[in-house]
Amino acid sequence: MSLPVVAIVGRPNVGKSSLLNLLAGRRISIVDPTAGVTRDRVATPVEHQGIWFELTDTGGYGIIDKDNLTADIERQIELAIDEASLILFVVDAMAGRVPLDVTVAEFLRGKNKRVLLVANKADGEKHIHATGDFFSLGFGEAIPLSCTMRQGKDHLLDEVTRCLQETAGIQPGADTAAEAPVEMKIAVVGKRNAGKSTLINTVAGEPRVIVSEVPGTTRDSIDVRFEREGKAFLIIDTAGVRKHAKMTSNDLDFYSFHRAQRSIRRADVVLMLIDATVEMGDVDKKLASYIGEEFKPCIIVINKWDLAEGQAGTDQYEKYVGEILQQVAYAPLTFISAKNNVNINETLELATLMHQQASTRLSTAQLNKALEDILALRGPSSPTAQRVKVYYATQIDVSPPTLVLFVNNPELITEEYRRFFINQLRQRLPFSEVPIKLYVRGHHRSVDKVRDKGG
């Protein structure tokens, strides 16, 4: 059973994103005083008194978008309303009723949906009493709320669940959360205009996020569920990354970049999108470095290959990528056209295989057979006169595969030998395309001697 959808709708700057964050209990949507920050639908599951629903934030209705995306934003609002069982119509208690609130009310009346009127920014008695002015909008008395002071949350959630029981027939304890469990979370990252949103929409089979030639169209990280062969997956669209030098600590790109980083941390597999028609640079290197630091399985996805094909062969391009993105040298490449749906299924199948690789657990016997072969090929050489003794290896975790190598003295294992050892493990173990985290531990020494390094 799919979750019922509760859509948050209202004019710009009434606190819709703050409301989503408050009801979800964590920061999901970007909150900024700049009008028009939210453009796409941002959704998250919420539970209250045993009832689950999907809460969806939308862009401000009536915004005049500086990038001429007003029609796209309003299309996303329409799609959210079409899916919704309940609308939260948000107004600003401090500003009072304004003409655009009336416009939104007229728009919602034509949708034949259950609507709860929510007056945000009711931070004191004065503003709570002023919410009576909104009665004329035609949706009953406004529910006063203050996102900044975190007041009114429980009352609003009580009303939401009551309405869902009446309109959607949802009962407490009902299996509304029983969507198919997510098999894998996939983050799509890359610099601006690499085609991330186009890829998301192609995978989802619907216009789930706005696609535009305007750089920086996507600002939030957008979670989109989709199904393949009866299994549910989550794919995460992220904001396009630009050079750090062009960011300030309080601009939208700064927040978007950190959400992209968080999406990488959440993901089981990362699709790093490269625009085949544009030269790679520092942004690609920094993204690859972060993916490597987080030990995430990664696929280098060369998008718009239909536009570049003929200018270079796949072997040549693969060599070019390998020279620039050495931080994720283990990552395989795929060549796609997100717009034309070329090689998308094959890329998703590869992501599934890599997730399986990263989740594989080997026995100590399997590891030590590989260890014997590597030592026979080349043992570690000591930078001192002390002899290096390697005892055995064991796997202590998965996702990423995490191995411990026991030696007589960890200080004797050089960085160069670490890299050699990890590369040899990839050739002998079912971890050929995923990062391996390697600890080196002194035999019979305490855990705090472990060096937290990997490759």
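That was protein one. Protein two is written in the same sequence-then-structure order:
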Amino acid sequence: MASITSGGRSLVMARASLDTLLDVLRSRGFRLVGPTIRDGAIGYDDITSSADLPAGWTDEQDGGFYRLRRRDDDALFGYNVGPQSWKRVLFPPSSLLWRLREAGGEAAGPSDEPADRFAFIGVRSCELHAITIQDRVFIGGNQVDPVYASRRDGAFIVAVNCGQAGQTCFCVSMDTGPKATAGFDIALTELLGDGEHKFLVETGTELGAEVMAEVPHERAAAADTARADHIVQHTAASMGRQLETGGIKDLLYANFEHPRWGEVASRCLACGNCTMVCPTCFCFSVEDVTDLTGDVQERHRSWDSCFTMDHSYIHGGAVRPSNRSRYRQWMTHKLATWIDQFGTSGCVGCGRCITWCPVGIDITEEAAAIRAADCRIPDEGGAGGQP
């Protein structure tokens, strides 16, 4: 486990200085988005001060189970991850792509709207990796998505190193956490105990250092960095789930007809919850609409899911008409074909798909079951071949 200081100079900031940090970001024109309690869960929404954060709250998670409960301290980031990810801000569930008013001959698109400069407060390491994955999809190729690009451009990221692991977390298996190592402007580790409440601060960019120069702080002592390292190491050793990733791409490619796909399909409701909460899923549908007069035409984009029948519909019917084929598509894409497309797994080990599945289907359990009963037919040399 790398030292907490590996990404830049380490500082210590008192709990009260967090509001100063938020004020500095706001004065620089950033719109603050951070964790807050809403509808019985911790999600991401606009915030104005640390008073909006879920102080003293944590969450209990398991397959198909999520509950908030009180902590015995006032930790601001003492929870895991909720049903929302930063995808909700960068790639909104619904967005206007294009509008035409016939009367004036006026056309407008997303690039014509003034874009907010976001400051994301409390981004976990797994979520940083998820943002990087969506960057590849939406702005990393020849075709740049204007909605995503306008929201991503200039975003300031305040990461938080995890102080606890959830029962459905497996970021260590995916090498995506629990410590933030890149992709942030400032990274915090919350330190509580002995009557103290403060943050170890690591600056990851020049802008992050400039912002921290306006916030009261001290140089971190060796004892502070040691505490922070211990917190992260303890979290890494406390994962609720594990996923063996060695050779998983070839394993899934070679087991398209594995009987496990039928077993999981008998439980799957094809509700799409797993894709909605996933921080890397990017499927969407496009709809053209017009008003009753025909004077205004609009094109809208909204999240879609590979679990819906219409998602794979072409002339003559759906390509994947069964739950079996749709679940296989989702899991194989996430853990295998994504690697061929984007050079990385599409899973960051956040565990949201396990927690928010109504019937508690567990991607780590499904992968382990296929590995345990690998149905590849060995070739004459003993190596696994295609079935």
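Residues 10-236 form one domain. Keep this in mind for the problem set.
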